[in-house]
Amino acid sequence: MQFWMNLVLVVQLLSALVMIGLVLVQHGKGADMGASFGSGASGSLFGATGSANFLSRSTAVCATVFFVCTLALAYMSNSRSGQTGNETILDKAAPAAAAASGAAAIPGAAPAVIAPAATPAASAASK
């Protein structure tokens, strides 16, 4: 399972980087085609309007791959935590050592009140 999560994460990162590059290469609607690809845009590889369609479709494909990878990572993460039980992170109890040191780390926080343990003398007096 860890192998698949790493593989999907790598694909997601690569698609994000390619999508960033494609967005940066594209020009705005008001920009002239000659500003990005030279003055002879009609004689370019994609034609006069072909590069805009190619770049926008490539960006859409990368966005779809990124979205699918995000959903796959969320599903795998949820199914991995579901194997140990149906607890959420809010249901899990905090460790006692972390809770005790965490309260002291908050400036201005009131000290925690700890109930005194029953001593043998106190239990003998109550009888």
Overall description:
This protein has helices at residues 2-25, 33-37, 50-82, 96-105, 120-125. With 127 residues, the chain is mainly alpha-helical. The protein is elongated, with a radius of gyration of 30 Å. The mean pLDDT is 73.
Name the descriptors:
127 residues, mainly alpha, 5 helices
Overall outline: elongated
Strand portion: under 5%
Number of helices: 5
What's the main sheet like?
Answer: none
Number of strands: 0
Which helices and strands occur, and which strands form pairs?
Elements: H1 2-25, H2 33-37, H3 50-82, H4 96-105, H5 120-125
Helix pairs in contact: 1-3
Summarize the structure.
The chain is an all-alpha fold and 127 residues long. It has helices at residues 2-25, 33-37, 50-82, 96-105, 120-125.
